[in-house]
Automatic annotation (TrEMBL):
Residues 376-405 are annotated as: Disordered. It comes from the Bacteria. Pathway: Cofactor biosynthesis; thiamine diphosphate biosynthesis. Keywords: Oxidoreductase, Thiamine biosynthesis. It comes from Streptomyces yunnanensis. This is glycine oxidase. It catalyses: glycine + O2 + H2O = glyoxylate + H2O2 + NH4(+). SUPFAM superfamilies: FAD-linked reductases, C-terminal domain, FAD/NAD(P)-binding domain. One of its GO terms (molecular function) is glycine oxidase activity. Gene3D superfamilies: D-Amino Acid Oxidase, subunit A, domain 2, FAD/NAD(P)-binding domain. NCBIfam families: thiamin_ThiO. Residues 14-368 form the FAD dependent oxidoreductase domain. Its EC number is 1.4.3.19.
């Protein structure tokens, strides 16, 4: 540094976050709150998968077999939402549409009902709060449901948030907290002395940083310069989503839907998320088609066909938007959080179907890791190293009597 111009070179950030979706932004905001100097690289921060997502906080109704460990993290994050929403709204001066409306998951035919019974059994075994209702009881709660509804699960603890507002509020909170934004893609991770040292951006900027967080959603596995063994095994899983406009409820009357409604219609998962703003989000397809984000006639047809069967009156509503996004899928459907085997490089990616739900806990975990070097207890099962070739090799060579049961 030139002695006569001590401020000519701005200090390097302590942390460079690659990716400004909700996961990158919450990491940046929470890390800045711990006194770290933070920069984010993203051409359009606040976009990404959250711009498409419906925003269900569905730890209980979106439970799947084999995801019991993930359930613990999902529930931990759901519990943090009320406080998180309050803190973020105060820090940003913006509302995030956190709505404690509960969820009703319903079945339309005998197969759907059998599927829902299985889900209910799993929920009960997992100690979760979920109540079985008859078709009549479901329609009493939501009169717009088709008369053919065979039964359902009432889950009063699965709420919703508006992901676009969440992203906007995180962006504002980051700016107020002094996070510096570089509106360009990170093209290459740089390393020095065997550790991550920053990134080269598409606009030619070279950014040095004490620690780097790769939070690029489905693109996280594509950053050049990341050693092969450390690249996260994240893939894009396409979801097509529709937005419709709800009618204003008549004075003193019932809204079109008063809670999130989910269903499996002839094996296809479907959800409808009614917002206080009058938006109804209808999703979603799940397609393994690489980087394709085309909205297809077939995708829209299937969503509307199944939704019409569930709620016949829905086809009267104005269709205002159709869009496709890419979920960052991981091999075990769970996120990769914390340090990698390359010193100085951390991951916050692979959140798959649960990015919006996991935003609060991800921010807390990543800030703790970045500020103290310690991985909090709740994040330890989600270490990126569980996918590293070294860890997998050790598992393969373990003697049978040493295998976990
Ligand atoms: N969590 C909803 C979805 O991934 O479609």
């Amino acid at each position: 540094m030139h002695p006569l111009h001590p401020s000519a070179t701005p200090p390097h950030p302590d942390v460079l976050v690659v990716g400004g979706g909700i996961i990158g932004l919450v990491t940046a905001w929470r890390a800045a709150g711990r006194g770290l100097r933070v920069a984010v690289a993203d051409p359009a921060p606040g976009g990404g998968a959250a711009y498409v997502a419906a925003g269900m906080l569905a730890a209980v109704t979106e439970l799947h077999y084999g995801e019991e460990t993930l359930l613990g993290l999902n529930l931990a994050s759901a519990r943090r939402y009320p406080r998180f929403a309050q803190e973020l709204e105060e820090a940003s001066g913006q509302r995030i549409g956190y709505r404690r409306c509960g969820t009703l998951a319903v079945a339309l035919d005998a197969d759907d009902r059998a599927h829902l019974r299985e889900l209910h059994a799993l929920q009960v075994r997992s100690g979760l709060d979920s109540q079985w209702l008859t078709g009549r009881e479901c329609r009493r709660l939501e009169p717009m449901l088709a008369p053919g509804v065979r039964g359902g699960l009432r889950v009063d603890g699965d709420h919703q948030v508006d992901p676009r507002r969440l992203a906007g509020a995180l962006l504002a909170a980051c700016e107020r907290a002094g996070v510096v934004f570089h509106r360009s893609w990170a093209e290459r991770l740089t390393t020095a002395g065997g550790r991550a040292s920053g990134a080269e951006l598409a606009d030619g900027t070279r950014l040095a940083a004490g620690q780097v967080v790769l939070a690029g959603g489905s693109r996280s596995g594509r950053l050049a310069g990341v050693p092969e063994a450390v690249l996260p095994p994240v893939r894009p899983v396409k979801g097509q989503v529709l937005r419709l406009r709800l009618p204003d409820p008549p004075p003193g009357g019932r809204p079109f839907l008063s809670r999130t409604v989910r269903a499996v219609v002839r094996g296809n998962p479907l959800y409808l998320v009614p917002r206080e703003s009058g938006e109804l989000v209808l999703g979603a397809t799940s397609e393994e088609l690489g980087w394709d984000t085309t909205v297809t006639a077939g995708g829209v047809y299937e969503l509307l066909r199944d939704a019409h069967e569930l709620i016949p009156g829905l086809t009267e509503l104005p269709l205002t938007e159709s869009r496709a996004g890419l979920r960052p899928g991981s091999p075990d459907n769970a996120p990769l959080l914390g340090p990698t085997e390359l010193p100085g490089l951390h991951l916050a990616t692979g959140h798959f179907r649960n990015g919006v739900l996991l935003t609060p806990v991800t921010g807390d975990v990543m800030a703790e890791v970045l500020a103290t070097g310690t991985v909090p207890e709740e994040a330890r099962p989600f270490s990126p190293t569980r996918f590293s070739p070294t860890a997998r090799g050790a598992e393969r060579t373990r003697a049978p009597e040493e295998q976990p049961v």
